[in-house]
Design goal:
DUF2470 domain-containing protein; Pnp Oxidase, Chain A; 7 helices; Split barrel-like; alpha+beta; DUF2470; 8-stranded antiparallel beta sheet; Pyridox_Oxase_N; Haem_oxidase_HugZ-like_sf; 2 domains
Length: about 240
């Protein structure tokens, strides 16, 4: 059964934003205004906003610096007919990160560890895409347009959780790899692997094993590290019990 058939559009969009590691970026060529499409590696901020690490030597970066309007296509990368899987076209504006650069760098490198080799190059910069909307295709006859307020994760009141995120991720990867494997296999239906945590936010935990990515949604919204510990313990107990 296609899981996208039973998932709410906003939840599916949030999951795709958190899980996607590559996408098709469309920018506008100067003067002619012709569309230019390129393959880019992506990660996301805790609210779901996409992150890019791109070089000023690249055509798409030059296009963005001239006109920041972009669209980004993300899909499930599921086996079989690609047109049967869920995908989104996110429209918005790309802006070079002038603040919160450490968070962008940490979140991006957690998703793409190999980028550490060139993240410090002078011609590379982190960009965030501020969405203006999403066009979701979740299967035959399931096409929905969503506004940012519908799919971006609400971070209000979650300052303590966001501040603690680096320590939470480090702790999970150092001491709880067995538990993350348990989440992946028992709760999310994946096969065993070297699952690690790449991030968390009020609505879920992000897991990754090489190119495989998963999203563990929380039953309730989490805004503090203490509440997160309780929720993760309850999910681990549920996984062990096979419920």
């Amino acid at each position: 059964m296609d899981p996208s058939a039973t998932v709410k559009p906003a939840d599916l969009t949030r999951s795709l934003l958190a899980r996607s590691r590559q996408g098709a970026l469309a920018t506008l060529m100067p003067q002619s205004g012709d569309p230019y499409c390129s393959l880019v590696a992506v990660a996301s901020l805790p609210d779901g906003m996409p992150i890019l690490l791109i070089s000023r030597l690249a055509v798409h970066t030059k296009n963005i610096l001239n006109d920041p309007r972009v669209s980004l296509m993300l899909d499930e990368r599921a086996p079989g007919d690609p047109l049967e899987g869920a995908r989104i076209m996110l429209a918005g504006t790309a802006e070079e990160a002038k603040d919160d650069t450490e968070r962008l760098k940490r979140r991006y490198l957690a998703a793409h560890p190999s980028a550490e080799d060139f993240a410090g190059f002078r011609d590379f910069s982190f960009f965030r895409i501020r969405p203006s909307g999403v066009h979701l295709v979740a299967g035959f006859g399931r096409i929905v347009d969503l506004a940012p307020r519908d799919f971006l994760t609400d971070l209000a009141g979650a300052e303590a959780l966001l501040e603690a995120e680096p320590d939470i991720v480090a702790h999970m990867n150092a001491d709880h790899t067995d538990t993350m494997n348990l989440y992946a296999v028992k709760l999310l239906g994946a096969t065993e692997g070297a699952w690690r945590c790449t991030g968390c936010d009020p609505q879920g935990l992000d897991l990754q094993d090489d190119r495989r990515t998963l999203r563990l949604d929380f039953p309730d919204r989490i805004v503090t590290p203490g509440a997160l510990r309780q929720a993760l313990k309850a999910l681990a107990d549920r996984a062990r019990a096979g419920v």
